[in-house]
Amino acid sequence: MSTRERAMLPAAERVNSIFTADVEKAQFLQRLANMLDDFLSGKKQEIILPDGTSTTVGVMQGKADFIAKARAFMAAEGMAADAGDNRITNIGARSRLSLIFDTMTRCCYGQARWESGMTPEMLYAYPAWRFVRHPGARMPRPLHVLNEGAVRLKTDFQFWAVEMNSPAIGGFLLPWPLYGFNSWMDIESVSRAECIRSGLIAPDWVPGPVDMSCFGATLPERLMNRSASVQKVKDPALAARLRESLKKRFGLDALDRDGRLAIPAHDLARRIENQDGNGYIPDAPPVQMMLNMDMVSKVGDKINLPKSGISRKVRTAVNRAVSSIDAVHTDGPLPQAHISQTPGMKVLGSFNPWEPNAPIAISNAGEYPDLTTCHEIGHYVDLWGLGKGQCQYRLGMIPSEMEKEKRSKYGSEHSPEMDELMNVIMESPTLSIIRSIPGRYYRYLESRRECFARAYAQFIAVESRDKTLIKQLNRQRQERNLNQWTIKEFRPIRNAFRNLFMKKGWMK
């Protein structure tokens, strides 16, 4: 497999790739690149067997060999990772090395298979791909779930590259597999006869010329919703050079005063696309690009706060809530959530699980707008980050059917990985009191989704130590309305939140 082919595999983040650059890392990255090339090219070596005879074997014999040799190299260079730290964010962890190997090899095979199906002869005989899933996905992306089994023309790059491989859901903006880390999504050919029967093409359809040059290494990289900082570079001189280089390439507004990327992700991608179109191609090894990726992203990058139609009170509350959340944890692939404002006191906040743009509404008349925003974002994280994504409304659904649909999608309602947290919440003394009180309102307070959102808001307030959030939380407690937990009973809930987010790599 050529260097060019490898360079296309991760649709890599060239900007992120430089933020932790140092000589020690570069040696490790180059060694990984060489080992992957050895495996993908089928490089052989001759070895002598115990009986004195010789035989030829692969230089790199598979994933286990790759991981063992990578960790041996780290140990020899004094870079050995903590043996007990197997988090995906640790570059020497077995889980991270396994992900690198799987992603690189699957992308190679995916690209080769895709290219073989794009010849004029194959396009005529098999005009379309079917979007299929292999077993193994632990948390399927909601967009992929909606499109499993979909049949689209092979040349529908909007569907295959832009939508199914969207950076917003961890994809690479390429039309071939992989469709994001650990997605387990794949393609299979669909015959001309089936395409005609389904109305996808006419009987006399013939494929025209296809321009595939746009899927080279100059695509806008997977920079959406990233969190990268020059602060990660230990060498002050190198950090200063990187700041100047980034400002020169992306503009004086590229970095904030702390050295973090300060321009919106979509604007950054546009600037990269414009520069790549003018022939600017940074030089960064593809394996380095992968190793330096933030495997998670900031919640705040997903919150879309409009420039108009929002009062200063609500805008300040949303910004403070988002800042506090980002100070506590990161997240997985989430869609953009859109903030709106409501006028009255009847509903202080709401989250709509039925819409793809994840609408969140905050009342301008609310007494606790910051805590309310955290609460509604809690619903958003529960559904899209920990659950299965958008609830599907069908015309004529009755309330019981709508409730069943919600319970099938929210993580707090069904996810085994949330059992520890939800058990602690549901077994707390406050919930025991709520269950003992009759009335529709208390059944609402008792629901697992509402319990999670209230607990999430309290967790953000306590963990971030934001003074405004703490003040609003204490006022809620003083009202004794059973919306929040006492300091003592919240301690095990707080620990369970930490455990959940650490397991997901959202907290350190």
Please report the number of helical segments: 22
Q: Pairing-aware structural class of the strands and helices?
A: alpha/beta
Percent in helix = 40-55%
Morphology call = globular
**Strand content bin:** 5-15%
- Outline the biggest β-sheet: 4 strands, mixed
Annotation, overall tally of beta strands: 9
Euclidean distance between termini CA atoms: 37 Å
Task: For the largest sheet, list the strands in their spatial order.
Answer: 6-7-9-8
Please tell me the overall pLDDT: 78
Question: What oligomeric state do these chains adopt?
Answer: single chain
Description:
With about 500 residues, this protein is α/β, with parallel strands linked by helices. The chain has helices spanning about 5-10, 15, 25-40, 65-75, 95-115, 120-125, 140-145, 155-165, 190-195, 235-250, 265-275, 285-290, 310-330, 370-385, 400-410, 410-415, 420-425, 430-435, 440-445, 450-465, 465-480, 485-505; strands at about 45-50, 55-60, 130-135, 150-155, 185-190, 305, 335-340, 350, 360-365. The strands form 3 sheets. It has a 4-stranded mixed beta sheet with strand order 6-7-9-8, covered by helices on one side. Strands 4-3-5 form a 3-stranded antiparallel beta sheet. A two-stranded antiparallel ribbon has the order 1-2. Strand 6, helix 13 (about 310-330) and strand 7 form a beta-alpha-beta unit. Helix 4 crosses helix 5 (about 95-115) and helix 14 packs across helix 20 (about 450-465). The protein is globular and about 80 Å long.
